[in-house]
Amino acid sequence: MEEVKKSVVIDIDLPPLEVSLKQKLQSTHKWKSFEPFILPRLPYIIRETNRELYEPRVVSIGPYHHGKESLLAMEAHKPRCLIDFLERNNNVGLEVYVKEIRALEARARKCYSESINMNEDEFAEMLLLDGCFMLESFFKIRAREPHLLLDVGWGPKTIISDMLLFENQIPFFVIEKLYSIVTSYEGDRETLLNLLHPSSILPDLPARGKIYHLLHLYYQWFIPGRISRSKSDRSSISISSSSRSRSRSSTFSSESSQSNHNLLAWLKSRTKSTSSKPYKIPMRSIPCATELHEAGITFKRKINHTDVFDITFENGVMEIPTLLIDSVRRVFYMNLAAFERSSSSMENDLMSYAALMDSLINSNKDVMLLQRCEIINNMLLNEEELAVFFNQLGEWSMLDSDKHYFAELFRDVQKYCDSRWHKYRAKLMHDYFNNPWSVLSVFAAILLLILAGLQAVYQMYPVVHPS
To answer: Is the pLDDT of residue 228 over 70?
Structure first.
């Protein structure tokens, strides 16, 4: 790794603070010495309050949870998996794998945001054992080979779930290297990707571009990338404006290494360009599902849809594809959200969906309404647990309207609810039709009013028309 200042010279006559800072700079590495992608850890407060969502239950992959006492039982099985893995190609000896992983050790270490307390041999051994364990597990699952671990009822789901945790990853180039060796360099990426999803969970989308780790691969499979597609569509319509935007970005990157004068000039130009932007109606949150239902909005299950994010609102009808949530998918979606929010190269597709569902679901009443409409297939313990899940998922979704895929849908729903008739209808439904007894009371009052009117007519009739 490159050091921040190779030419730093420590003067013994300097005060202690300057000496300690210069020593710290000498031992610190520049950002450019890291890989383009980073495998960070979650903030402590998030991880500690939801440990069951982010920490592995049976197997550690990578350095962050390596050596934990609760996971040591599985460490004894990893060498056994390595033996099975080596037997898949008897023409390649263990020394070949070790040599190739040693060559990747320094590069893989740069992918982690925290310093790894392992020497080169220990880190290389961990990468080899964990990578072979992952591939061998998928080989056995795909081929339905008998195995003591995977034949247990909880085995495949729990192990795969642990492999898809945000803090339980190794770089994908390590997995690719091991796969290419075991297939005698005949296996390509397509065959590897066919291997890496269990048959019980079929991906909705093809993987695209560079893959950082296994969770990133699943993100590409399950998250549709609608924001990036809509951006590319807009850029194709207005090429000139997007090219100007790109030139402004490149101007910053080139000027950032110049003097402070140029940086200030760039900031001033950005201020002027921002102030000249047309005013946009701010996006507000929308009411929950039960309140929207009271205001006259109908929820329908969308049958013909491209993916689970294909949500539309038109003429007071919101159509949403069915979403299945069970204990495995609950953990999976939370870790996808953690990955999306932790990577600057990702768009905010999942966060947009989370913000919408978090707005719609505030309590178990909202869950029950969406279940009746067949929009949610809840396999958790109860409606309350599902409501908590969507609220937890929504905690990641701090978005402005420019980065929100459903911003236009939010505005349409707000406009619908802000109309006077729909406000009166919502108040009437909330005050007088919120439960069966209120409905009976209203009908009883109407019936009494009709009877009183009829009685008055019968009493007045002899007076108006005397016999």
So the answer is: no
Give the C-alpha separation, 365 to 384, whole Å: 9
For 120-150, the pLDDT digits (tens) are 999 999 999 999 999 999 998 888 887 777 7
> For 437, phi and psi rounded to 5 degrees?
-70, -35
Is the pLDDT at 391 greater than 50? The verdict is: yes
In angstroms, the CA 278 to CA 402 distance is: 13
* pLDDT value for 281: 52
**What phi and psi, each to the nearest 5 degrees, are found at residue 344?**
-70, -20
Please compute Rg for the chain using Cα positions.
30
Question: What's at 224, amino acid-wise?
Answer: P
User: Can you tell me the distance from the alpha carbon of 174 to that of 196, in angstroms, rounded to the nearest whole number?
Assistant: 14
3-state secondary structure of 365: helix
Which ranges constitute the DSSP H helices of 226-284? 226-237, 239-255, 260-275
C-alpha dist (Å) from residue 15 to 25, 72, 229, 397: 16, 48, 56, 47
How far is residue 106's CA from residue 112's CA, in Å, rounded to a whole number?
Answer: 11
pLDDT above 90 as % of the chain: 41
For the chain, helix, strand, coil in percent to 5 are: 60, 5, 35
In angstroms, the Cα distances linking 311 to 323, 353, 377, 405 are 12, 9, 16, 10
- Summarize pLDDT for 91-109 with one digit per residue, the tens: 999 999 999 999 999 999 9
Place of tokens 């996808």: 336
Q: Which amino acid is at 76?
A: A
Long-range own/partner contacts, residues 115-119 (CB < 8 A, 24 or more apart): 116/63, 118/63, 118/66
Report the C-alpha gap between 152 and 141 in whole angstroms: 12
CA proximity to 22, closest of 35, 37, 6, 34: 6
Distance CA 396, CA 334 (A): 9
**Residue environment code for 218-235, b if the CB has 16+ CB neighbours within 10 A, otherwise e:** bbbbbbbbbbeeeeeeee
Q: Please, how many CA atoms are within 13 Å of residue 451, restricted to the half-sphere of its CB?
A: 6
Tokens 């998918």 sit at which residue? Answer: 329
Residue position matching structure tokens 């960070």: 40
What percentage of residues in the chain have a pLDDT greater than 70?
Answer: 72
Per-residue model confidence as pLDDT tens digits over 337-357: 999 988 777 778 898 999 999
The pTM of the full predicted model, rounded to 2 decimals, is 0.77
Half-sphere exposure of 96 (CA within 13 A, CB side): 15
Q: How far is CA 50 from CA 26, 44, 126, 313, in A?
A: 37, 10, 26, 34
- The DSSP 8-state label assigned to residue 298 in this structure reads E
**pLDDT digits 0-9 by tens, 300-326:** 999 998 888 999 999 899 999 999 999
